[in-house]
């Protein structure tokens, strides 16, 4: 069916192609995923089984464009080699029924409609549009005539880096920002205060969560209003003379959902996030997706595996002494999550090792590590059960992205501290 699908003399579908198209749609429309969602992958030469479309939309694409080259076995639509060798009984049984449901192939689709359908794309939702607007703002020059690459965002990023590296106070940053703005040409866009610098950042959320001094619990969700520990009864805040409350211990949590979204909002990574489902392994394990464990998971959860843009995650954690070889003992435990959708050349790069939790010291968390993992576990459960809407810049469409934690990577002492 990947040969010429239209008669050059009449412009209509050839009889062979029309029959094959009907058989394909009869078979694909009756697969469990299509019946549940009302959508299927489109195997036309442009979509190439990378984009979801409604059943009627796939009819139109295949009618006007034909099938992608080499698509003999309908792997993305429920067919297997066994079905090809011995024939699919469901094809003939359901052909007439589906033909009646679809009303047959529409032979009056005009050229204008075909062109409009070919170039139709979805617009990013509000949240994604904010990110794209931010990227556009990063190209705005700091002032007329400044050097290329100098923008309000780059200035804010550099200032935040200096503040962190030298542990500057907010008042000090305010003074420096105000001084820099004054000496630059008029009408410059340089941030004048620490607040403006903070707002000009990348917009990734973070949470500072209070922790019991003995690591019994975190003051989070239903416990956020408590002033003492539910288990040991020790107070949450230190005794101070001022009005501001200072907790004994704080953990940092950096949600992963927004960072996973941005992997699909960047042209540099959107297509690479589908690599795990599109590469050929040649019977060699060069990536976790080539292993039996990965394939077994996909066989157990076919609806998750069906959407190649769903995310497969790995988690790693270990502790280290913040002060190196100095005598002072301080145990800090970062928790890192990485997406394994990416090819081997990318998935182990620093940019894709997402720091999600910083377990504070100075004491070793020991078996309390699971207490600090609660926000991450909650977020992972939400991504598995419900997913989140994401804009894919490669296919110019919105889709529901889900995620799964495939495994954890630890040494044996840390392994004994994790309950999962």
Secondary structure elements and their pairing?
Layout: H1 15-29, H2 32-37, E1 39-41, E2 52-54, H3 55-65, H4 81-86, H5 89-102, H6 111-118, H7 126-137, H8 152-166, H9 170-183, H10 194-199, E3 207-211, E4 249-253, H11 257-265, H12 275-278, H13 292-300, H14 302-306, E5 311-317, E6 320-321, E7 331-339, H15 344-347, E8 354-359, H16 369-372, H17 374-385, E9 388-392, E10 397-401, E11 403-409, H18 412-417
Helix pairs in contact: 1-5
Strand content: 5-15%
Shape: globular
**Main sheet characteristics:** 7 strands, mixed
Helicity, as a percent range: 25-40%
Order of helices and strands: HHEEHHHHHHHHEEHHHHEEEHEHHEEEH
**What value does the Rg take, in angstroms?**
28 Å
Distance between the termini: 49 Å
Overall pLDDT score: 80
Number of helices: 18
Low-confidence regions: 81-120
Oligomer: single chain
What would you say about this model in short?
The protein is built from 18 helices and eleven strands.
């Amino acid at each position: 069916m990947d040969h010429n699908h239209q008669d050059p003399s009449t412009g209509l579908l050839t009889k062979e192609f029309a029959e094959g198209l009907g058989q394909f749609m009869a078979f694909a429309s009756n697969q469990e995923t299509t019946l549940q969602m009302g959508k299927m992958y489109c195997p036309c030469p442009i979509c190439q089984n990378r984009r979801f479309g409604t059943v009627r939309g796939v009819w139109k694409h295949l009618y006007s464009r034909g099938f992608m080259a080499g698509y003999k076995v309908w792997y993305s639509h429920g067919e297997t080699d066994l079905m090809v060798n011995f024939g699919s009984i469901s094809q003939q049984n359901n052909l007439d029924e589906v033909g009646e449901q679809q009303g047959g192939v529409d032979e009056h689709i005009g050229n204008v409609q075909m062109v409009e359908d070919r170039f139709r794309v979805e617009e990013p939702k509000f949240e994604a549009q904010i990110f794209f607007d931010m990227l556009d703002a990063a190209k705005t020059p700091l002032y007329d005539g400044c050097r290329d690459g100098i923008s309000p965002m780059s200035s804010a990023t550099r200032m935040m880096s200096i503040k962190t590296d030298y542990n500057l106070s907010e008042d000090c940053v305010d003074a420096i920002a105000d001084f820099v703005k004054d000496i630059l040409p008029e009408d410059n866009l340089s941030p004048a205060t620490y607040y403006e610098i903070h707002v000009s950042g990348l917009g990734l959320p973070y949470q500072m969560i209070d922790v019991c001094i003995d690591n019994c619990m975190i003051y989070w969700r239903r416990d956020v209003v408590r002033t003492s520990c539910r288990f040991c009864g020790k107070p949450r805040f230190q005794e101070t003379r001022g009005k501001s409350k200072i907790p004994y211990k704080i953990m940092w949590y950096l949600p992963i959902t927004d960072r996973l979204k941005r992997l699909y909002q960047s042209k540099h990574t959107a297509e690479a996030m589908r690599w795990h489902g599109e590469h050929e392994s040649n019977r060699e394990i060069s990536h976790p997706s080539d292993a039996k464990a990965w394939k077994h998971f996909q066989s157990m959860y076919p609806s998750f595996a069906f959407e190649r843009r769903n995310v497969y995650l790995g988690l790693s954690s270990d502790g280290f002494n913040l002060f190196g070889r100095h005598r002072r003992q301080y145990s800090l435990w970062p928790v890192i999550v990485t997406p394994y959708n990416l090819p081997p050349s990318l998935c182990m790069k620093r940019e894709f090792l997402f720091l999600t939790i910083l377990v504070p010291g100075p004491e070793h968390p020991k078996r309390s590590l699971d207490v600090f993992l609660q926000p991450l576990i909650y977020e992972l459960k939400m991504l598995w059960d419900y997913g989140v809407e994401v804009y894919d810049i490669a296919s110019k469409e919105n889709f529901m992205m889900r995620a799964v934690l495939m495994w954890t990577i630890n040494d044996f002492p840390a392994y004994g501290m994790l309950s999962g």
